[in-house]
Amino acid sequence: MLVPVEKLEKVLIEGGHIQKIDFEMAKATSEEKKQPLDKMLIEKGLIKDQVLGKIIANEAGYPFISLKRANIEEITPELLSYITEDVAFSQRSIVFNKEGDVLNVATNNPSNYSFFKLLEKKTGKKIKVFYATDFDLDQALRRYKGDIPVEIARVVENIQKNPQKSEESIVKLVNLILDYGYTTLSSDIHIEPLAKITIVRYRIDGILYKVIEFPKEIHSRVVSRIKILSRLRTDERSAAQDGRFDYDIRGATIDFRVSVMPTTDGENIAIRVLMQRGRRFELEDLGLLESDLKKLKANAEKPYGMIVVCGPTGSGKTTTLYAILQQINRIETNIMTIEDPVEYNIERIRQIQVNPAKDITFPKGLRSIVRQDPDVIMVGEIRDEETVDIAINSAMTGHLVLSTLHANDAATSFSRFLEMKAKPYLVSASVNAAIAQRLVRKICEDCKQEYYLSKDDLLFLEDEKSLANTIRRISGKENLEEIRFFQGAGCKFCSNSGYEGRTTIFEILNVTEEIRELISIKAPMDTIRKKAIEQGMTTMIDDGITKALIGKITFEEVRRSAKA
Predict the structure, then answer these.
(1) DSSP of 38-52, one letter per residue?
(2) In this structure, are 314 and 258 located in the same domain?
(3) pLDDT of 70 strictly over 70
(4) CATH number, domain at 495?
(5) In what order do the strands lie in the sheet with 350-353?
(6) Distance (Å, whole) CA 368 – CA 354
(7) What is the CATH number of the domain that holds 153?
(8) Does residue 132 share a domain with residue 152?
(9) Which residues contact 159 (CB under 8 A, 6 or more apart)?
(10) Rounded to two decimals, what is the model's pTM?
(11) Are 380 and 337 in contact (CB under 8 A)?
């Protein structure tokens, strides 16, 4: 590490950036796991990476570069060509700018003098070195978008040519499949047998893309390799199996959750990819408009009551809850959670995994948590009468309770409580805010271009008059044909999809006294929704249209999310 541990400890503690007990805990964990201390401090959420990055750069005497989106977008193919992909990843270095005869290089190891001298000799340019955080480097290095599918094709060809000596190639094939999931920040990998071939699809930004295919005769060997990694039975092919394994990719440890399911064409594999890399559990990173961010922060700081997050499966509800927890995660606060599953471990927070086999269910785990003197309780999901009863009572007896519900919008969450036999006056007294959300794809900034609504879009809006009027109201223009939107044309940096990354569209319903009264008398949800809008609630559609007009997302994404 650039700064000695003792010096870093002094600067962080004396500067009030971190508590001594937390520093010592992170230090012990970093030694146990043989991970860099600075990385451990950030992963545990004890300090923001930008703050720590500036401190380390200052103490080590190097300039600091924050590779925000604007910087990363300016990393062109020409700049990438100065350092090859393999070298960039191994040396954790990338050229992010060129000024005349000087290349500006971001790295987490600016004291790597031999490498930078070699780079000067190779390029004929002067090298100016900047210190960047690991998180920023991870995002920047994605610009390379390695051609892993081509390498996979070569490996498959070798397996077919030498079937008797291909065990090593099968291992390499599986490693490459996993590597591609990491490189593209996929949330899931699907290995699917068909009649004559096997295809591999990746869920990237919420959408499944077919990327790889290989001959069916290789399929069973790929399945066996993944079963071995997951410690599953390789001789069992007619029953479903679930497992998990950790895998190191370019210095990052990734958690893979594996589900094997027998089908008529063979065993189907679905792999959930869980990584800290790219996960930013901070409210500022959720994509909230400024007014909604203020509402959410105010509700997170309340000492008691309930915040409930609504949306379908895969809408980012858990990420929002984790971001709220990080906002209030302090040494003086006792936070406990019960989840199914625990997706990410957060320092200082006691997290409990639901396990019916051990008689740990949401209701029983929640009852036990209440006896642990918590200040904040997170319940992964409220799904039955017993859980909702305990959650409401906890919210009314001095605890801040966070949870999720399956509901289409914020106002509908109150009817879901009533469906689970909760008393209206208790719901009105306990809930502070209801949040509804959807995940939508962001436009790739490298190929973003303006466009105007097509004939199909205009025909769609003729039927969706409410949506059309929303566009007119927010844009301030009456003629829909004159309203400018944005889309991605497709480029190498977004794999020609026009999209890169995801953001969220929200609606946050603050439970005011007027709305409490409506809930307590079981007023229709439309009435509650109308009152919330009158009091300043931004609906998901309003939020989506606003983000489409400023070029964050496409109009098509708003249309798609409106149907969800």
Answers:
(1) HHHHHHTTSS-HHHH
(2) no
(3) no
(4) 3.40.50.300
(5) 350-353, 335-339, 376-379, 400-405, 305-310, 431-443, 499-510
(6) 12
(7) 3.30.450.90
(8) no
(9) 166, 169, 170, 173, 218
(10) 0.76
(11) yes
pLDDT at 76: 87
What pairing do the DSSP bridges indicate for beta strands 188-193 and 126-131? Answer: unpaired
- The residue whose two tokens read 């209206």 is 424
> Which candidate, 315, 266, 263, 261, places its Cα nearest to that of 286?
315
Helical H segments across 5-47, by residue range: 5-14, 20-33, 37-43
Q: How far apart are CA 27 and CA 347, in angstroms?
A: 13
* Residue ending a domain, choose from 252, 274, 296: 274
Contact criterion met (CB below 8 Å) for 310 and 406: yes
Average pLDDT (503-523) is: 96
Two structure tokens written together for 257: 């959750």
Question: What torsion do the CA atoms of 323, 328, 334, 338 make, to the nearest 10 degrees?
Answer: -20
- Checking if the pLDDT of 468 tops 90, the result is yes
> What angle separates helix 513-520 from helix 525-534, to the nearest 10 degrees?
170
Cβ-contact 470, 340 below 8 angstroms: no
Q: What is the model's pLDDT at position 145?
A: 67
Cα separation of the two ends of the chain: 47
> In three state form, how does the secondary structure of 118-163 look?
HHHHHHCCEEEEEECCHHHHHHHHHHHCCCHHHHHHHHHHHHHHCH
Last residue of a domain, one of 240, 274, 308: 274
427 pLDDT higher than 60: yes
Do 127 and 178 lie in a common domain?
no
pLDDT tens digits along 111-138:
999 999 999 999 999 999 999 988 788 8
